[in-house]
Design goal:
The N and C termini lie far apart (46 Å). The protein has 278 residues and is an alpha/beta fold. The longest helix is centred in the last third of the chain and has 21 residues. The protein is globular. One of its GO terms (molecular function) is protein-tyrosine sulfotransferase activity.
Length: 278
């Protein structure tokens, strides 16, 4: 029965996209809703949209505490360069940036591996899943947690090349930026931004592999609420930390390609390469 439902969902998605292509948007919307309803029925025993929202709420409540702004900074230097992340809301252009940047001979993008998720799980095993451990970070514990991250990241690099820079791309790592910044104050973030209406609608129309976070895209209202929650926590991080970040708008990449990519390369301190245009 499940395989029949999956086939039916695929058929309806094709219909929805077809109606969208010929400009019959009300029909398209109706069929996207049907496809998402089938997706929910297939996956509802394994997903819980509230879990993702609670994860954000937990971090929002923690990081708005004034104690966070008074954290003592420690020496963040280690043998490895500070990590670089591509973050943003799903369907905001992170994959486009990945495709462009990986064409540069000195850049390797690690695409959507759960490195940060696994890193945080490993840390939580040691600190009983409580964010309060972040108040008590010292140089020794920071060094230990940094090594844990690089060990996990380097498993996803085929051949570590000292001349290359490595970018960890996972859009919703945006939720964990506070934890990342506590351990890596000098981390760099490329923040992909797209018009909220386009972004939210695109998420609703996309057939994502279901998990707790993606289950927020099965209807338009939930998609908009999830977008709001994610953007609010990023704004909280921006107001709380001095973040080494560069925001790139999807629309600018499309309309003014070379200037937009050159600005990102300047941020990464990498020279322009002709390979980018190939």
């Amino acid at each position: 029965e499940k395989s029949e439902n999956i086939k039916e969902q695929s058929r309806i998605v094709i219909l929805a996209k077809s109606y969208d292509q010929i400009g019959e948007f009300e029909k398209a919307f109706e069929y996207f809703e049907k496809a998402n309803e089938i997706s929910f029925n297939i996956n509802n025993k394994f997903i819980n949209k509230k879990k993702a929202l609670k994860m954000i709420e937990k971090r929002t409540n923690f990081f708005k505490d004034n104690k966070v702004k008074n954290w003592k900074q420690f020496n963040s230097k280690s043998k490895e360069s500070s990590p670089i992340f591509i973050i943003g809301f799903p369907r905001s252009g992170t994959t486009l940036l990945d495709t462009i940047l990986r064409s540069h001979p000195l850049i390797e993008v690690i695409e959507e591996k759960p490195i940060i998720g696994n890193w945080i799980k490993e840390i939580q095993k040691e600190v009983d899943s409580d964010l309060k451990y972040l108040h008590n970070i010292n140089e020794n514990s920071a060094q230990k947690f940094r090594k844990m991250y690089f060990d996990l990241r380097n498993k996803n690099i085929k051949k570590n090349n000292g001349k290359k820079i490595y970018i960890d791309k996972m859009p919703l790592n945006i939720i964990y930026a506070g934890e990342i910044l506590r351990i890596f104050p000098d981390a760099k973030f490329i923040m992909a931004l797209r018009h909220p209406c386009d972004c939210v609608l695109s998420c609703f129309m996309q057939s994502f592999k279901m998990n707790d976070a993606m289950s927020n895209f099965l209807n338009l209202e939930d998609s908009a609420n999830f977008y709001d929650s994610v953007m609010k926590i990023w704004q909280l991080y921006m107001n709380t930390f001095s973040i080494n970040q560069y925001t790139v708008k999807y629309e600018d990449v499309v309309t003014n390609f070379e200037k937009s990519i050159n600005n990102i390369l300047d941020f990464l301190e990498v020279a322009w390469s002709k390979n980018i245009l190939k």
